[in-house]
Amino acid sequence: MNTVKNFFQKINPYQDDSVWLVRILYVDIYLSKFMKICRMAVIAYTLVMTTLQTFLFLQKFDGIYFIKYLALYAGSVVILVATFAVPYVYRSVAVVINCLDSWPVVYITNKMKKTIKVESFFVNGFVFLNTLLALFSASLYFVPVDGDDDIFFVFRLCEELFPRWKNLLSWFYRILFLPVAVLMPSVLYLTLYCMTRLRFQFYLLIHLLKVVNESDKEKVDKSVLLYGQQHQEEITRKLKFCIKRHNEIYEITYTASKKIDTFIFIFSIASAIFGTSIVVFYFSFQGSVEGIRYLGVAALVIVAVAMVVSIFLCGQSIENVSNELVEVLQQMDWNYWNRENKFLYLMFLSHAQQTLQIKFSNSVALNYELGVSIGKFIYSMLSVMSQIKDIDYGSYYKM
Q1: Tens of pLDDT along 67-98?
Q2: What number of other Cβ atoms are within 10 A of residue 89's Cβ?
Q3: Where is this chain primarily localised (predicted)?
Q4: pLDDT for 205-225, tens place per residue?
Q5: CB distance 215 to 335 below 8 Å
Q6: Domain boundaries in the chain?
Q7: Which residues are CB-contacts of 184 (< 8 A; sequence separation ≥ 6)?
Q8: What are the residue ranges of helices labelled H in 141-227?
Q9: What residues contact 53, with CB distance under 8 A and at least 6 apart?
Q10: How far apart are CA 335 and CA 228, in angstroms?
Q11: How crowded is the C-beta side of 141, counted as CA atoms within 13 Å?
Q12: 88 three-class SS
């Protein structure tokens, strides 16, 4: 019984943070002055170069010329969207974490504590390793190789417009790959961090529902439970607390989703264009590329795919734990509750039927269904591009 009483205690939201490593990498470090300076440098440089590239595209528009540099052009747009969105997404995550009072993990069963510990280990490990791989991919672009001018429009732009400053501007561009490797996925990792924290709080809510009738074990005569005022008041207190907690989780989740849905939508569209342009470039490019560039692109693809898959899995896990809560409610023994508690129970059960989803529109949510749809689209695109791969674009690349 002491466990249940202690369970109502609340703690500082960051005191018992199971996914502490993600918080350090993408919350604490982001707040540092160094990372803020890097962010402004990335935005300024990318914005200037993208504007110049847009102007030259319009001035000298050529279909094959456009396809040739579309991949990095779309990538620049993704970088701008991601870096602009980071502070807004961060504030939304901070609102969720600060408004949602945390419960101490120490007051749950060993089985659930182990579940949270294992999931936290995998989330922390995944983000850490994926960040290292992203930094490794970025570091590979420090090495100048033949053919960079055919991939990175910035290098050709510097040569045409700023020949005296070409080397300096090119090296500054290469150095920016490191902060970009951290800033670009920040939106997704912050979303992952927030959803993981929400899922763990859902676990704790489910645990409390399972022990609502814990005092039943202390009594044998069920009639005493039915007519015992103290017991019924304890049930009422627990149910009201669970209902309030459930409403808080839903309201905060939907509020946070609405605040960042525009950025996520734009980021998704830009990323889709970026991915499509990379595929088009891969199947149409006829030049030569050094092996180190293939290694860098391969690492980048692994990082991107892993991030997207992790977001879909985490979004689906929110739905799953929401449905699990409904199953726990349906299995509760309410036969020896009074009328008021039965009414609270039915009201709670009715409200919980609405599955919690991370939505970015009325019809789009982060789950398996969206992931499968995107996977089918990518497969179809690869199939189409593989059929036109034999087209000779070599003559068009002579500029």
Answers
A1: 667 777 777 878 888 888 888 888 877 777 77
A2: 24
A3: membrane
A4: 888 888 887 655 555 466 666
A5: no
A6: 2-397
A7: 78, 79, 82, 83
A8: 153-161, 166-175, 177-183, 186-210, 222-227
A9: 69, 73, 76, 153, 154, 157
A10: 14
A11: 26
A12: helix
Angle at 229 between CA 226 and CA 232, to 5 degrees: 60
Instruction: Tell me the one-letter amino acid at 262.
Output: T
Contact residues for 265 (Cβ-Cβ < 8 A; gap 6+): 360, 361
Both tokens assigned to 187:
């939106």
Identify the helix (H) or strand (E) that includes residue 232. helix 229-284
Total Cβ atoms within 10 A of residue 64? 12
Burial class (CB in 10 A: 0-12, 13-18, 19+), 342: middle
Return the structure tokens found at 173.
């561009």
Prediction pTM value: 0.80
Each residue's pLDDT tens digit, 321-376: 889 999 999 988 888 788 898 999 999 999 888 888 777 666 666 666 766 776 77
Number of neighbouring beta carbons within 10 Å of residue 46: 21
Provide the pLDDT confidence category of residue 2 given band limits of 50, 70 and 90.
very low
Higher pLDDT: 90 or 189? It is 189
- Joined together, the tokens standing for residue 59 give 């001035």
Amino acid at site 149: D
Nearest to 70 by CA among 82, 81, 57, 83: 57
Distance CA 374, CA 313 (A): 14
